[in-house]
């Protein structure tokens, strides 16, 4: 293990031995790293109602800065994985939670990468947080401020945008101008449909 493990926080744990000392005293997490140089992380926020109904509330790509293992923020909606694949994986984890009597808010972290042998995209679930997450709080704030709507099946975030249009009614000096607002912006994953990223 000492030859393969790399502590995430090299300032706190410069060597494996330093990490191992604290790990044996307090516990910790040892996690497999995907066999790829290009790995994308994303988070999905879910709510399981007491009735058993499951709702996907948010999907976002993680933004990393100092370290590929430290999340700095989120980009919503996610554009890394086909929404149907991500929804299927999320449903599997949600069903496992329901079998264990888990209800309420929780967050699932996934990583996706291209398998070097099959050259196919792979999606791994790597973390489960049984709490109301920061990403959920930020999504709720974003929805409130923008008045938008998140559509998990399409991995789409639809935001209404006002556009003033003046339409003439009547002739000559009696013309009246009526203002009309009818603009929407659709921000979606490219997996949804080839012509969805449009402004009308």
From TrEMBL:
Question: What are the IQCH-like ATP-grasp domain coordinates in residue numbering?
Answer: 2-151
* Top-level taxonomic group: Eukaryota
Q: Which PANTHER family match?
A: IQ DOMAIN-CONTAINING PROTEIN H
Give one Pfam family, short name only: ATP-grasp_IQCH
Q: What is the designated name of this protein?
A: IQCH-like ATP-grasp domain-containing protein
Taxonomy, top ranks, is: Eukaryota, Metazoa, Cnidaria, Anthozoa, Hexacorallia
Species of provenance = Desmophyllum pertusum
Residues spanning the membrane: none
């Amino acid at each position: 293990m000492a030859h393969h493990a790399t502590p995430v926080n090299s300032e706190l744990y410069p060597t494996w031995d330093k990490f191992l000392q604290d790990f044996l005293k307090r516990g910790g997490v040892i996690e497999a790293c995907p066999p790829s140089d290009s790995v994308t992380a994303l988070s999905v926020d879910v709510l399981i109602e007491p009735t058993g109904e499951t709702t996907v509330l948010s999907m976002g790509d993680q933004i990393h800065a100092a370290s590929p293992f430290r999340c700095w923020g989120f980009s919503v909606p996610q554009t890394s994985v086909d929404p149907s694949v991500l929804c299927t994986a999320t449903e599997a984890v949600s069903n496992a939670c329901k079998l264990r009597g888990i209800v309420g808010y929780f967050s699932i972290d996934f990583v996706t990468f291209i398998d070097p042998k099959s050259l196919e995209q792979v999606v791994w679930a790597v973390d489960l947080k049984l709490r109301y997450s920061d990403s959920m709080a930020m999504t709720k704030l974003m929805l409130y401020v923008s008045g938008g709507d998140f559509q998990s099946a399409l991995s789409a975030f639809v935001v209404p945008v006002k556009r003033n249009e003046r339409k003439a009614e009547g002739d000559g000096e009696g013309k009246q101008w009526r203002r009309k607002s009818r603009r929407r912006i659709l921000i979606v994953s490219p997996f949804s449909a080839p012509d969805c990223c449009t402004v009308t």
